Amino acid sequence: MSDRDDRDAQDCRDAGDGRDGGDGQDGRDRGGTREPRGTRDGREAPDERTADQRCVLIVDDEPALLRTLRINLSARQYAVRTAATGGEALDRAARSAPDAVLLDLGLPDIDGMDVLRGLRTRSAVPIIVLSGRTDAADRIGALDAGADDFLVKPFLMDELLARLRAVLRRRSSGAPLGRPVIGDHTVDLAATTVTGPGGPVRLTPTEWRILGLLLANPGRLVPGRQILREVWGPAQETRGNYLRVYLAGLRRKLERDPARPRHLITEPGIGYRYVP
User: Are 264 and 254 in contact (CB under 8 A)?
Assistant: First the structure.
């Protein structure tokens, strides 16, 4: 087992709601943040972790930045997991779902955009991209691929913490409590599973993304253009036929009576909503 695997072997299943506060430093390690009591080199102490922490997966191949982020987040009572490669990040996220991901795009093995897409097809976990890429096209591409936010390096630690609080707050307030039910089917977004009377139901990655957007806004109308933009990109905002096809497929798989849906509702000419 590698040194990082040994440090981070405790997975994210012990995580819960997080707190944060205190003075921030910028994204470069200036040595101005004390390491949390009971840690060494910013590493978390699993035996001191409480049940009310949220778990953040940091994906970056810069050891100094990983250390700085680990120290700052641990000091604010987040449980922290780290990955230096795209493959390691996808493996960690698959083994134990984090509550948020901080993702660098310049990874040594897999392009960060591919990691972003891989994470997004599996779950609706909030993802903040941390990147030295400054072109607007890179920011737009990452957001269209499923990132919730984009922060250019170097950055202020206070700003990163504020953005992290914001995405976690949106997830907590927007996501339905527990495991949402559609017809006779129970949906587990974190595990990306649907279980019905006949057993597991397979959804395609695109179906998961559409369903995730609707479930994150229970009872609220989600405009069709927004779904098209977030799933297929801004160039496809007028392709309403895409949504009609995929929503019909989701209803066939999940609703008791697809012709008279109870949960996945169409608002003609406007958008769709999930009714719990």
Answer: yes
Rounded Cα distance between 2 and 82, Å, is 12
Decide: 53 and 77 in contact? Cβ < 8 Å.
Answer: yes
pLDDT 10s digits, 207-233:
998 998 888 877 777 888 888 888 887
Q: How many CB atoms lie within 10 A of CB 86?
A: 25
Pair 67, 41: CB distance under 8 Å: yes
pLDDT in tens, 95-112: 888 999 999 999 999 999
* Tally of CA atoms within 13 A in the half-sphere of 262 that contains its CB: 10
Side chain identity, residue 228: L
Which three-class secondary structure state does DSSP give residue 1? coil
> What CA–CA distance (Å, rounded) separates 150 from 126?
11
**The amino acid at 67:** R
CB 190 within 8 A of CB 123: yes
Does the pTM of the predicted model rise above 0.85? no
